[in-house]
Design goal:
two-stranded antiparallel sheet, mainly alpha, 53% helix, globular, binds iron/sulfur cluster
C-alpha cells in the first residue's frame, strides 16, 4: 500500500529491511517499508485553548485541514518540516509531545501572510504560528527566539515614538542576539542604499538616529496603546490560570466552558 504524505513521517519511524522474504516473496529494500507503531499516552486536552489565549491564536478552532496554508507557505517551500496545517492538527488533537519535536523551527515563520491570505476559514495561520512560538517560550520549552527579540524592539520603538528607525531596529536586534554588527549582506544592502539615497534623506536619517523624533501628538496614543497591551496581557494571564485550574479539577468538557 502506498504511504500517503510520506514526508510527514519522521525518518526514524520508517523501517526498511534490506533483506526480507514474506511467504516466500522477496520484499527486500523499498518494498518492505514499514511505519513503526507509536503510542501517544500523554494528550494535553487544553493545548488548543492555551495557544488560543496568545495573540493571533484565537481562530485556530476554525481550521478544517484543507492544507492551503502549507501549500502557500514561503518557509515550507525551502523547509518541508515547516508545516502550519500539520501543527494546527497536532494542537487541536492535544498532541503536545509531537508538537515539541518541531519546537526549534516553529518560530521561523517570516510573517509573509500568504497563508492568512489563502485560508478559506479565516484561521489566520500566521497568527497561530506566532501564538505557538510564544506559547513554547511561555512554557519554557525554548529560549526567546530571534523573531521575538526583533518584534520586541520593533514594538518598543513604535510604542515609544509612533515610528521606527530601521537602522536602530537592526542595530539593537543584532546586539541583543549577539550577532556581529558588520556582516557581508548588511554591508551590501547599506552600500546599495547609500549610493541611491538623495543626500538630504541621508542627512535626515542620520539626524533621526541622534534626535529620535516622535509622531505628532503621540503622547495620548502611546498611553492608550500601553493600556491596551497591559489589559491584553492581564486577560491572557488570567485565562491561562483558569485553564490550568480547570485542568486539575474538572472534566475535559468543562475545561472548554471555563476558558470561554
Ligand atoms: S488554510 Fe486555513 S483551514 Fe486550511 S489547513 Fe490552513 S489554517 Fe486550516
Ligand atoms: S506567514 Fe508564516 S506560516 Fe504563513 S505562509 Fe508566511 S511563512 Fe508560512
Amino acid at each position: 500500500m502506498p504511504i500517503h504524505e510520506k514526508s510527514l513521517i519522521r525518518p526514524e519511524n520508517l523501517k526498511v529491511h534490506e533483506t526480507l522474504a514474506i511467504d516466500g516473496i522477496d520484499v527486500s529494500g523499498h518494498w518492505s517499508t514499514f511505519i513503526e507503531t507509536r503510542v501517544v499516552p500523554d494528550y494535553n486536552e487544553n493545548l488548543e485553548l492555551e495557544i488560543a489565549a496568545f495573540p493571533g491564536g484565537s481562530k485556530i478552532h476554525r481550521c478544517f485541514q484543507c492544507g492551503s496554508c502549507t501549500n502557500a507557505c514561503t518557509v515550507n517551500a525551502i523547509e518541508p518540516r515547516f508545516n502550519p496545517r500539520y501543527w494546527i492538527y497536532l494542537i487541536r488533537m492535544g498532541m503536545e509531545q509531537e508538537l515539541l519535536r518541531d519546537k526549534d523551527i516553529i518560530w521561523q515563520c517570516v510573517s509573509c501572510h500568504k497563508c492568512t491570505n489563502i485560508c478559506p476559514r479565516s484561521v489566520e495561520p500566521e497568527g497561530v504560528m506566532k501564538a505557538t512560538a510564544l506559547w513554547l517560550e511561555d512554557k519554557g520549552y525554548v529560549p526567546k527566539s530571534p523573531a521575538h527579540v526583533f518584534d520586541e524592539e520593533f514594538s518598543r520603538q513604535v510604542i515609544e515614538r509612533g515610528k521606527i528607525e530601521d537602522t536602530e531596529v537592526l542595530h539593537k536586534f543584532l546586539s541583543k542576539t549577539k550577532q556581529p554588527l558588520v556582516q557581508d549582506w548588511l554591508v551590501a544592502i547599506m552600500w546599495g542604499i547609500a549610493r541611491r539615497l538623495p543626500v538630504k534623506w541621508g542627512i535626515k536619517t542620520a539626524l533621526a538616529q541622534v534626535f529620535k523624533p516622535k509622531a505628532r501628538r503621540w503622547k495620548n496614543v502611546r498611553s492608550a496603546i500601553s493600556d491596551y497591551i497591559y489589559e491584553e496581557d492581564e486577560m491572557r494571564r488570567q485565562k491561562l490560570q483558569t485553564i490550568a485550574a480547570a485542568r486539575t479539577s474538572q472534566t475535559p468538557q468543562t475545561h472548554l466552558e471555563a476558558a470561554e
